[in-house]
Amino acid sequence: MKILVINGPNLNMLGRRDTKHYGTDTLETIEHQLVEKGRELGCELAFFQSNHEGAIIDYLQEAAVDADGILINPGALSHYGYSLHDALVDPALPVVEVHLSDIHARETWRRTSVLADIIIRQIAGLKAQSYSLGLEVLVKHIKGQETK
Fold it and tell me: Of 36, 47, 94, 104, which residue is the least packed, with the fewest Cβ within 10 Å?
């Protein structure tokens, strides 16, 4: 089973960004933790990060062909990335959206995700643990073991 792990704008700055909201882990640390979690769950992970919506869309159009699911932290694209929304719909794969910070307790504009209607779950506010839990949910969904 292959899972695409996609990170949007500014996530390359983790560890140096506002640690109150995002924690102290770097993106590299989170990726290493996910690789271990992926081994436990029996899945292969492919990582991609870009600060550009178009680059993420290009990656999705190419990489989704041989993937089984998508774990995405779209960053601020979550709130206005309509092109990203459409690119996530096209491959017809299950998608879990994760956020390090609690987007529902921050600025009003962060509380709406344009991806909400296409994802199977959103996990937010658990810092790096959001990714691990998101991967678990996604793998269970793919295996038909999803619990509500």
Answer: 36
